[in-house]
Design brief:
This protein has five helices and five strands. By secondary structure, the chain is of the alpha/beta class. It has a single domain, classed as Rossmann fold (3-Layer(aba) Sandwich), CATH 3.40.50. A five-stranded parallel β-sheet has the order 2-1-3-4-5, with helices on both faces. Helix 1 crosses helix 5 and helix 2 packs parallel to helix 3. It is globular, with a radius of gyration of 14 Å. It starts with 5 loop residues before the first strand and ends in an 11-residue tail after the last helix.
Length: 150
Amino acid sequence: MSDKVILLVEDNPDDEALTLRALKKNNIGNEVVVVRDGADAIDYLFGTAAYAGRDMTVMPAIILLDLKLPKIDGLEVLKRLRADNRTKLLPVIILTSSKEEQDLINGYSLGANSYIRKPVDFTQFVEAIRQLRLYWLVLNESPPRWEATL
């Protein structure tokens, strides 16, 4: 499982640290790539700008996507991912503190695989990450690598 990359798209340094700590606490040894805004997420996923030349055969096993991001918001990132054959099947888990029902509806309408509200309590958050790991990194059967779907 450690060969499965996790892409964390999170602009809040405290939430980033909390997520990384929760992953570590659950013994998740996967490589975690952190990007801090929607534009960087797009660049990473499509191998452009600062990520030009990266190995595009290595795509994230899961994307943990915050919604309230600078430059390009999370819903727009999701929309762009779902519009491209190279990324349309990647599992996207919205991980947000937003309690807006419209964000939930929009996330699923745009093709999110899951929507998780960040628990305020660290113990609850660790448990949410444990369950996320069990399902998305262990039990879930991912589609074939993206280039096979073109």
